[in-house]
Amino acid sequence: MTDPMVQLQMDEHIRAALKEDMPFGDVSTAAVMPDARPGRVHLIAKARGVIAGLSVFSRVFELLDPAARVSASVVDGEHVEPGEHLATVEADVRALLEGERTALNYLQRMSGIATYTAGVAAGLAGTGTRLVCTRKTTPGMRLFEREAVRLGGGSMHRFGLSDGVLLKDNHIDAAGGVARAIECARASAPFVDKVEVECETLDMVREAVEAGADIIMLDNMSHDDMAAAIALIAGRAQTEASGNVDAANVSAYADLGVDFVSCGALTHSAPILDLSLKHLEVLG
Prior knowledge:
This protein is 43% helix and 20% strand. The chain is of the alpha/beta class. It has two domains: 4-120 and 271-282, Quinolinate phosphoribosyl transferase, N-terminal domain (Aldehyde Oxidoreductase, domain 3), CATH 3.90.1170; 123-268, Aldolase class I (TIM Barrel, Alpha-Beta Barrel). Strands 6-11-10-9-8-7 form a six-stranded parallel beta sheet. It has a four-stranded antiparallel beta sheet with strand order 3-5-1-12, covered by helices on one side. Helix 9 (223-233) links the parallel strand 9 (215-219) and strand 10 (238-242). 38% of the residues are buried.
């Protein structure tokens, strides 16, 4: 069950999406269905993938018609096949027509991310390395996209800038070096926060270890340099591999024994999963 505060945030985004799509109402629907009538429509998969976002899909129709009901034959995280019947939506026909595109946009986007994530995560199966997402999300969609990553078998990195210290190249430049950046973070961040540092060279890794970083991100390093960095760290900090990770190369990072592999492509490059609402029926 979604946390009430998270649901409140999601509802705000969904309402904004509906307003964006019909700021002054839906003139097409008003023309063909001026009055309330009960109706039914069917959700069909048009491609193979992992379904994600059914609760968001349902919520679109519930916000338009509190009596809307979605009867799903699959659950989030389940693999679906082309032609498979996934759900039936019953609501006021006007709500079905007005909410169709917004509901599908959310479901297709989230399902596409979950499908892509599952493919990348398969390369880490059976290892101790966790696949994590990044902040490379669509503005306004982070809540939904990160949930899709989770449903696809990925894990969460920090949600945003307010809930974790990650010192990247520009922070290090601003502070005047790796050690100084870590010192500043220790002095100002809550003591419960871990300090992660992005390192691009072995010299930076050495400095981060000596300064007491909790997590060291090995960013865009060669496989050999990453192996040397992990040997240098020697268990004194957790390790995260990052940079151009995809399904084809992710297993190479796991072979190094890193704790985490971060992949921006999970949210910025995943194609949608093709889904459709079909065979609308007016019931009364």
